[in-house]
Every structure is written in C-alpha cells, then in structure tokens.
Protein: DUF1592 domain-containing protein
Amino acid sequence: MLRIVLIGTLLTPAVLRADGGPALTPDDAGYTKTVEPFFKAYCNSCHTGEKPKGDFRVDATALPNNFLDPGAAGKWKEIVNVLGSHEMPPKKARQPLPAEVSAVVDWVTGQTVRAELVTRSSSVTLRRLNRDEYRNTIRDLVGVDFDVSGFPQDPAAGGFDNNGGALTMSPLQVEMYLNAARQILDRALVEGDKPKPVKWRFNPRVGPADRTRVRLDAKNNAIVNGGQNTQEGDWVVIHHEWWNKSVGAREFQVPTAGDYVIRIHAAGRAPGRSEVVKTAETYLAQRRDEADKKNPKGAQYNKLAFERDLEHFKTDRMYDYGPPRAKVVQQLGPQPRTLAEFDASGTKDKPRVHEFTTRFTTETAGVSLEYAYRIPRVLENFWFQEKDDFPRPELMIDWFEIEGPVFTAWPPPSHTGVLFDSPTRRTNERGYASEALERFMRKAYRRPVAPSEVAAKMALYDAARKGGATFVEAMKRPLTAVLVSPHFLFLVEPAGPSVGAARPLTDHEIAARLSYFLGSSAPDADLTKLADAGALRDRAERLKQIDRLLAGPRREAFVRNFAGQWLNLREVGNNPPAPDLYPQYDRHLEDSIVKESEAFFRTILDDDLDARNFIKSDFVVINERLARFYGIPGVRGDEFQKVPVPKGVHRGGIVTQASVLTTTSNGTRTSPVKRGTWVLKTLLGVDPGLPLANVGEIAPKVPGIDKATVRKRLEIHRQLDQCARCHNKIDPLGFALENFNAAGEWREQEGFGYKGRVGQNDPKIDASARMIDGTKIVGVDGLQAALLKQEDLFLQCLAGKVLTYALGRQLGLADQPTVKAAVAHMKRNGRTLKSLIRFVATCDPFETK
Structure:
C-alpha cells in the first residue's frame, strides 16, 4: 500500500501550472507596426513559400506571434541572433538601417521577456535532488554514505544537472528510492550489542597463487598471495604490472557487514636516470653488435640507430621516475572495484602505512594490491623494458590488514542522530516516537512540519507496532516514508499569489537554496537556526554565511560539481587518447588532469584571485605526475601544489590544461572545431550555431587528404558556403591551440610517421589564425590575449553559469540585467569568483520565486 501511495504522489510533472496555464496577450500592434514591414522589405523574398532558404519561414502561419510556444520562441531567438551578428540579410542583399534592426530586436526581446516572466511566475518547479545532492543529503541527515551509482544518470540542461526542468521522475526511480531508503535505514539504525570486531593481518610471501592459506577463524581459511615477485626478507618486491604479480588475500567473509579499515605497510624505490641509461646502453649495444655481425655493410646505419635510441633514454621525461604506485582493489562476490591508488612514497628504512576505509558485506571477499606505475611501451624500449634488470620503480609490500567493523561509539552516530536520547523515551514510547519523527521530518523536509504531517506518518508506526514489530523496526516504517516523500526528494517553492508577481522566499527556502548552491546538501544546523529566527532574509547575515560555507569542507561539493560541469571535466576519459599514438597518457595522468582543473578552480576561489586567471595565469596547480607531463621541474609528491610557470613552458589558464585539451580532441587527433566551440561556449558564452544536416566531415576524394594537416582538412571543409558560416567563427580559436596534441602535450610538429611519430620533414605546427573581425592571433598566447580583450563577454559568461547553477534553472533574457549587474559588482570588487558568488546569493532572483 505504501508503494502505491508513493508512486501516485511522486509521479508529479516537473512543472505544475498554478491556474490552468499562463496568459499572455500578443502584441499585435507592435508586430504590425515594426516586424511585418521589416519582413516584407528584407526577408519575405527568401523566407516564404514552399521552398524557403535554410528551410526557415517568417510568414505568420509558420512563425506565429506566440512567445509561449517553445517552437516559435526558438525561431524568434534565431532571428535576433542572425540580425545581431549581421549574418542576415546576406551581404549582397538590400541592407536595413541600424534603427530598423534595433526596432525588431527590441520588440522580440521585449516579448520574450514578457513570456519568460509569465511562465516563470505561474509555475511551481519541483526540483528533484540529483544523485550527488541525494547522496550528500543522506550522509548529512542519516550519517550513511550511500552509493548512488545505481541510480539513473541525471540529465543536464543549461550546462548543469541540477536544473529542475530536466530532473524528471519515473516509476523505476520511485522503486529505486524506496529500496534505497530501506537499505539506508537498515544500515543506520541498529539493535542489540555492538558487533565484535576482527583484525586480520596478512603477511604475503611470493610463490604460486594458491599455495598459502591462513586460518583467520573457524569460518575463514583465506588464500594469501604474494605473486610471482621477488622476496627480500619480509618485503615482497613488485617490479611489473602483470596479472600474476599482484599481492592480496581472497576467499574470506567478514562476520558483520559494515565499514572496515584496510591498512597497507608499503615502501618503494625508484632508480635514477643514469641506471636507466646504463641498462639501455647495454641492450642497444648488444642489438647493434648482432646486427653488425649479420650485415657488416650496414654498420653505419646500426650505429646511427644505436645513438638515436640511446638519446631517447637520456632525454625522454618518462624516465624521470616518481615513486612506485599501487592500486587497491576490493572484491565483493563477483564484482571487483578499485578503492584507491596511491604513491608508495615511503622507503625501506622509513616505510609508510596507507589507510583506506570501505564497506564490506558478508559476501565472499578479497583484497588485492597491484602495481600501477605505467612506463609507456614505445619503439625504443618495448623489446626489453619488461625484463627484470630494466630499472623501474619497485613497489614493496610488507603486510596489509583489515580491521572492523569500525564504530566511534555504540550505538553509532547514525543511530543516535535519529533516535536520540530523551526523557520522553523512558516514560512514553509513542510520545518519543512522535518527537523523534518530527525532528527527523523537519531536517528532511528542510522546514517546519505541521502536526498533521507527523500524525499521518505516525499511523505507519502504530500499524507496525501493533503488528509485533520492535520499536526500531516500527520506526523504520515512517522514516522510510519520509525518505521517499516529495518533500524530501524535491525542493518545492510555491509560486507567487498572482501572475507576473515575484514572491519573496521564506527563510527556510533561502537556507535550502544557499546550502544546495554552495554545498550540494541540506542546510546545516547554523543555517537552520538562522532560518528559524527569520535572519536569512537579512543580506548582511547571509553574506556571513556565504563566507562561512566557502571556508568549510562542504564547498568541495561546489568545486567538484560546478567546475566539473562548467569545464566538462566529467567527460575526461570518455574518449581517451589512443594509447598507441599517445603512450604518455595513462590512468594516473587521467586522474591527475581532472584534479588539476579542480585544484586550479579551488585556488582561485580560496585565494580570492581575479577570475581572469581562468583565461591566463602565471601559475599552475599540479602534482608530480603532471609536472613530468608538462615538463616543469622540481615538483615532488602526489599532492597538488601552486607552482609558478617556468619560462618557456606554455601553461597557465584553463585552455592549457590537459583535461580541456583531451576532451576537445578526437582520441586519435586534435579537433580545432571542438576546441574552438568549447572556447566560444564555455568562456565567452557564444553559441556558434548547430552544424547543418548531411554536410559530412571532409570531402573524401580530395587528393592527399590522408597526409593533410588538420588545418588543411578544415580549409577544404570551409570551401563549402554552408560550412563557412560557423567555421569562420570557430576554427581560429581552435587553430591557436594546435601546439597541444590530443593528449595535451606540447609539440612543434605534426607527426605522420609510424604511430604518429614526428619525422624530420613533417610540417611544423601553424598555430596562427585570423579572427572573424580580422584580428590576427598566434598560438595559445595570442588566443589568451584575444580572450582577455573580451573581458566583458567572459565575465558575463561566468556570471551566467554561476547564476544558472545557483537557481537550478536555465536563464532567459529577463535575467540579463542581473547578469550585467553581477559583472559590474565583480569589477568593483577585484573581479573575483568569491565576489560573484556573494552577489548571486544576495540578488533578487536568488531570494524570490
């Protein structure tokens, strides 16, 4: 019965009409006076009739004066775009006076704003919590870190996945939320005595995989495996990443499901460059001598090959080794899962204990430690680098252990946070149940609750108790209902009293908006207390809370979710650089390039820096792995550090970061089109337009196209008039980034050799370009200079992105005054990201509905 009620309640459309639908009287007089004569004079000859150019008609039947119709509104917007960019009328056609264009644009803009205000004020957006918000809210409300990876992916709209218009609800999701609520409460609420913990230590030894079993208890006789490695006293030394080299234990079951700590006593050692060169020289000399014996006449060529390949070992950055790296894999039932990767930065004399916490169920389990330092296989080394005498970082494992389940107290905080201690509990069980339920509902619904709401949920408790359930089990019934209620799963903000009138948000609604904006979770105790006191409507108090939230740990969710979606970091790894063409790209690098962009964003936020550093900066925020990749010396450790950009290194600003450069490439080669489009949309807020259908990529019969540079390919493509319209705006921005290959490495030439190798006669990169306004730019430096000249566009774009994310909806023309006010505020306050956030969270749209 509970399930049926919930499905019926939750299958609510994302947008509810308050009065049967908004009303907007068309401005027929303005249309007749301004638009109709303009169309007749400049548009009808091409854009009316059965075969209009561009399949775009402007006659009243195809383009109605109805701005509440999404299809018509989109067409009117396109008219504004082509008039504003002077794309229409065509250059050879009769041209309108600027005043005529302005009159049409102003009329369309005015009607669009009217429609937006009417639609927005006459609807209630039930904005569902997205996956990350749900996980964080459950963690802060119940104290359980619930895995939401099984939930459907949240669709994005306006660039972000917290957009209420896109966050729909399906019957399948209702079932998933119900099952999740039951699992969460089963983990959170406990009965009985504290489970007896176990602490199992494993001392692996090298040898056959199934040779050693260790009796852990009467039910567990685990297999402990040291792999086919080298034993040095108590240390297992791992030299390779092969499957039979891993160390671990398997075929055991923990006695109680819960959180367990995995500790690993590890060390490492890394050889220096001289050892690599010495070993390589031995192998290369051996190859040279054998070739001379077989063909003495080719000795001079063999000598050249020896010297060329030896130079690789002397100079390539891949042999500037960092510490060995380990991957920790957990096996539960049939499913392996990577828990973590870490650098074994300790030494044999000063080893380190690396600690990780994970959840074990009572399924058959295992833990394995794998070598994860990847040295690329390239032509110079692939034939001997896997030999045992080839110097490479070595991972050393002494022991590892599993301890748990771990509790800071019993009952655990997840239990006492819900079923707290109260005098009522000892004298009036039902009264206490009502008290606990009311407090939980208040936190879950993010507002005060009415007695009738509590009474409705208490009926579930009463029924369960009468049915013989224990107190804890009976409490789970109404608590489950709370966790699948629309008041928990959605952020509901009722509309104003009349169409076109904005309603001030309540203090609790402001608390929720602010908390989900900057923390992707429910309001904490401080925000709730201020909301109860009616203090959050005061902007001065809200500014204090903004600063507090930005200084606390919850702001990591803002960094991860806003930066991750604004910069498309979630796309990293979806189409990675081909390993045979870009051997330097590996899993550690992929993880690092995402963290680099997040750390860069965090630094600009925390240090209150000028937001123009996003375009160009004199610093980078990198770890040792990225330092090797970028060619920046002196950086040690896997932690991210703010480092000045050395002279001659072309980094600084997000367009130089490998995360952006890889996601805007095609896996096998660069894509100036993708890169230019990304710059236009992400940094300047300019929509380059959609590609025309059935145009194709490049004419396939062009002679020599297989050896043409990317620039040459696009020049051929732009010869088509229908393609040039967009590509003339896009391509110059992408050409300026051509010195970065598809993996984000700097290059001077485009390689056409075997596996993308650069030959002596291969063409040098031409990173020059001419913008659509005629401005010439050269390389990334020229691009950054051009972008800095477009400061207002960039700041408007950034302000629009932050406002979109904060409001949880797409912006319209009615929001442009707020965006421009935000930019003006930034300019008065050092152009900082923090000043923008402070403005957004205190502006009228943020505190009204």
